[in-house]
Amino acid sequence: MIGITVAAGLSLIVSMLLMPPLIKLLYRFKFGQEVRDDGPEGHKTKQGTPTMGGIVIILGAVIGYFGSHLALWSTPTASGLLVMFLFVGMGCVGFLDDFIKIYKRRSLGLRSGAKMVGQAVVGVGFAYGVTQFPNGYGYTPAAPQLSFLRDFGPPLMIGAFVIWALFLIVGFSNAVNLTDGLDGLATGATILSLCAYVIIGNWQLRQSCVEALTSSCYTVRDPLDLAVVASAVLGACIGFLWFNAPPAKIFMGDTGSLALGGLIVGLAITTRTQLLLLLIGGLFVIITMSVMVQITSFRLTGKRVFRMAPLQHHFELKGWAETTIVIRFWIIQGLFMAIAIGLFYLEWMPR
């Protein structure tokens, strides 16, 4: 628990301290957001707002994670390092996307093919890596299986598992990116998801098969360190939200959204809660589904289901205030997170 607290506190401090000078630096070099021409009219005022704030989220989280281990004189685990690799790697892909947008003064960055290649390289490296590095008990950071509250079903071939993991990584990183359309929306929703993984990691530690070999124990390799990773990013996101809350002084950009999406999937895979992620990140799933429904309906019928997709912009065009949408969507995400944690604890309820 001390490591979790130190990681969160340190990353929060770093994020809060680095954000103001980064905002000034981005303003100085005119590294501002390029707003879509077809977006809501109210977004025109956000043109030029500094972006790439995800840099500080990543720096804060990395310093918080490794600083926690240094403070406690402990060694980072294979699981923690692999999730951090996925987090930073996806952030690098997002940084290239943001930089191209700013440099070329357009709302589109990397070509879809190049972006997919970058995500694939990082995702495949992570997916293969989590099946390696067994500890003294033979537990690897993840098993090549599907999981809900724990692993289930027969093991997958390594190639099939890598494809499945890559599907989750690309899908969820883009889901967070789609959610990042209103001030503070994606950041607040991510914070709630990370709270869930701090709780899950802590509980899996207490019920680990390493501590007591029972029929209901968890074979998660490094549950405590995964909770430390989640808390480090959680602290950095809280520090970022201070400046990203409406009206935002800075946006996370693809640097932050791709990194955070990849991180959440990394935690889901290594804590063996892949399908539970549909609830832990319920808001991201709903917003992504709204885009899929909109595109499918328009292509098949020529009609739109929503006034605009993603879903948050539909409510903007209906006249809802931005802060109203953000807070109500946070409430929805909080309810999803509570349901997910309830299901996670369900098997431990007395019968």
From TrEMBL:
InterPro entries referenced in this protein's UniProt entry, alphabetically: Glycosyl_transferase_4, PNAcMuramoyl-5peptid_Trfase, PNAcMuramoyl-5peptid_Trfase_CS
Pathway(s) the chain acts in: Cell wall biogenesis; peptidoglycan biosynthesis
Single Gene Ontology MF annotation: transferase activity
Superkingdom to which the source organism belongs: Bacteria
Keyword match Glycosyltransferase: no
Subcellular location: Cell membrane; Membrane
Entry cofactors: Mg(2+)
Main function: Catalyzes the initial step of the lipid cycle reactions in the biosynthesis of the cell wall peptidoglycan: transfers peptidoglycan precursor phospho-MurNAc-pentapeptide from UDP-MurNAc-pentapeptide onto the lipid carrier undecaprenyl phosphate, yielding undecaprenyl-pyrophosphoryl-MurNAc-pentapeptide, known as lipid I.
NCBIfam families in the cross-refs: mraY
The protein, known as: Phospho-N-acetylmuramoyl-pentapeptide-transferase
